[in-house]
Amino acid sequence: MRKKFSLVIIIFYIMSGINGCFSTSNAEKKVADKTKQYEEACSTPFGRYPETITYTLGKMTGVNNSNMPAGDTYENNAYTRYLKEKLNVQNIDTFEATDNDYNNMITMAISSKNIPDVMLIDDYEYLKLLVKNDMIEDLTEVYKECASDRIKAIYSGYGDTVFNNITFNGKLMALPETNIEYGPNLLWLRKDWMDKLGLEPPKTLTDAENIIRQFIEKDPGENGSGKTIGLVCSPEITSKNGYSYMTQADIIFANFNSYPKQWIEDENGNAVYGSVQPAAKDALAHMNKLYNEGILDKQFLLRAQNNIEELIINGQCGSFFGLWWAPNNPLIESKRVNEKADWQPYLISTNADGSTSFCTQNPSSKYLVVRKGYKHPEIVMKINSVLFDYLRCTDESLKEIGDYYKENVDPTARPLGINVDYQDALIRGYENITNALNDKIEPYSLQLIEYSYYEQCKRYLENPDDASLEDWAAYTSRITSTSVLYNANLKRVKGVFFGETDTMTRIWWKLEELESEAYLKIITGEEPIDYFDKFSAEWYKQGGDKIVEEVNKEVKSYKEQKNVSN
């Protein structure tokens, strides 16, 4: 009996030792697995952290809580919940603010040298200041390791320009937002008015001017004699940095090979400022002619943007230059007031061969930065990889984000507040949605946002007469107006500089005022056309010559960096 008991004890201890070994082995395996998962998360685009990683955030918000559903916040919404599920990351907002208030918060944070772990910068001077004071992380390795192949392809599609402004001494000091190409502004006209007057679609600027003249003189909108407004135009006249904005006259200037407010190359390969080139004088002379004839709104100097939109919405105006997305704003409101208002887009040629020239835009104007010393700088790249590469409509966990698109929740609901997409994303989206509508591809192969537009366009086509205004706007913007750009003969005039030199930092505001005043005086006839020569000379005299020198030095530096990298 004693022998049996001893044997049991021996067996017990043997088994205990074995179990102990198993326990130790299991524990070690768990630690090893967790370590591997952590390392993969830190060095891959889509790896999930084993434990929640938090980061403090300076959050640029949108108006009306970005139109998020009741109960959702900037720390807890469809995007943050999805990122928590996929990456196990969570933002803790140090401050939340919109527009100028946001920039004031950024200024205070930088001044106190107490910035959040991550923040969005939309002022290049802030970025230079942060780099100068060694306050932000070098993101070169972060980009190499945690940008997905698709994200890298997106950025490379913009060429070197997207990284020029954020590369300091060969180091990537921020992650840039990408500004997709919208193309030239379209001329939006009341087609129902044209039909009433028996007018053909315009092809040239002369055609467009004739249509607007007849709108004013023959009053097809029945506003009353002399009450129909001509071409509405922003007092800013043209856009900056190649961006196309609503109700601006870039197309008119392009008819004279003029590109105000843009840095372009002259015939000798030097960077020049378009606003002071001789071609601008010819364009201003034509603008003055349109103003004197009343084709250009006589009150344009006094119009705020909301007042311009009221004229369009209420049917007092039947013409404006606007973007492809004009159906979303303000034309949807025009249809709400008058469902028979038939707004159609037309592209005006600027060259004798029927093509349309426009200046390429700044590829990036917002920058994500990470505080120097933050342990996980890679999360900014991982978040962008997930949100701009990973979203497919077949992913059931994306239903909430899909609903956001349907409910018109503003993109500012995303924690990092930037967009990363192909330069030709507008055209890619048009092709994909059109192919899905024509049964050439499966709808479920679309990106999430494309699928949302596909559903709206499909509903519109099934019953155009009874379609919702939202579905009309989606179809008219994503298909009707984008098809005009898709089928157009476009010629790009390359913008060569979008940064800010040292002299620009000090005096650019003064030169901008000088330019604006001169342009408006010439257009309205307060000064003769030859006043342009006086303005141009004064522009150079007040510091423009120094800025031109600095810009050319910067552009030369970009080219040299490109040659070295090649």
Automatic annotation (TrEMBL):
Keywords: Cell membrane, Lipoprotein, Membrane, Palmitate, Signal. Gene3D superfamilies: Periplasmic binding protein-like II. Pfam families: SBP_bac_1. This is Peripheral protein. The lineage of its organism: Bacteria, Bacillati, Bacillota, Clostridia, Eubacteriales.
